[in-house]
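seq:
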Amino acid sequence: MEVKKVLWPTDFSSNAEKALDYVTSLSEKYQTEVHVLYVIPELAQHESWYGEFEQSHIRKIQEWEEQTAKKRLDQVCNNYLKGCRLYVKHVAAGDPAEEILKLIDEEKIDMVVMASHGQKGHFHFGSVAEKVVKNSPVPVVTIPIGPRA
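struct:
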């Protein structure tokens, strides 16, 4: 198997960062591209908002989320992935597992490296990680986050 493209999905949590050592090691060893993906949760997934929002207000929130995500991806890539030959940043909106699977297909990703739990890591095995592992056409390496305090 030849590994040319590695995907690291992140929710910017400390749990997601635990996969970084593996991502950078693979990148350095195999001179791979590293694709970094952050998925913005859909506003429709939120519980009821207080008051009513016009579509323009929702658009402003989404634009702010996207700009913030791009800045954070820049920080992650500059601070942690300097050794990578090439990194490509992606921001998507929607269901994280679905967006990860879509990007695997669109970018012809060879391997996914992700933490077993993300920001909402209170389950035994993260629901996003589980969906990706069960449905991915490529190998998925899940990094355990260790015992919870």
